[in-house]
Amino acid sequence: MKHTAAMSLPWKETESFTAQMEKFCSKVRADVEKRIGKKTVFNNLNFRATDTEIQYIAKVHVGGNDCVHVKISQDLPCYGEEVKLIDFQFPKKRDDEIEPF
C-alpha cells in the first residue's frame, strides 16, 4: 500500500549502500525480524533518501532472492539521532525497484 504523504516527499535516486546505511539497517534489524521472521542474511543492497528529511528506504537482502524494503528515519542531532523503523514491505525480490511508500 502506498501512502500519499510518502509520495509527496522529494526522494532522491537509488544509491549504492554506504557504511552509514549498513549501520542504520543493523539498528532496525530486530524490529524487522519480529515481523518477517529471523533471517540468517541481512545485507543492505541499496537505498533512497529524501532531500528534506532524514529518511531512507533501504533494500535489504534476507536470503535467496528475497529482500525487504525498510523505511528508516533518523532524528536530528539535537534530538539524539535515534534511528527508527517507520515501515517495511515484504516480500520483495532483488530486482524490485525501491519505490517510496
Element layout with pairings:
Layout: H1 4-8, E1 15-16, H2 19-36, E2 43-49, E3 55-63, E4 66-74, E5 83-93
Antiparallel strand pairs: 1-2, 2-3, 3-4, 4-5
Overview of the structural elements:
It is a single chain. The protein has helices at residues 4-8, 19-36; strands spanning 15-16, 43-49, 55-63, 66-74, 83-93. The protein is globular, with a radius of gyration of 13 Å. 23% of the residues lie in helices and 38% in strands. The protein has a single domain, classed as Nuclear Transport Factor 2, Chain: A. A 5-stranded antiparallel β-sheet has the order 1-2-3-4-5, covered by helices on one side. By secondary structure, it is of the alpha+beta class.
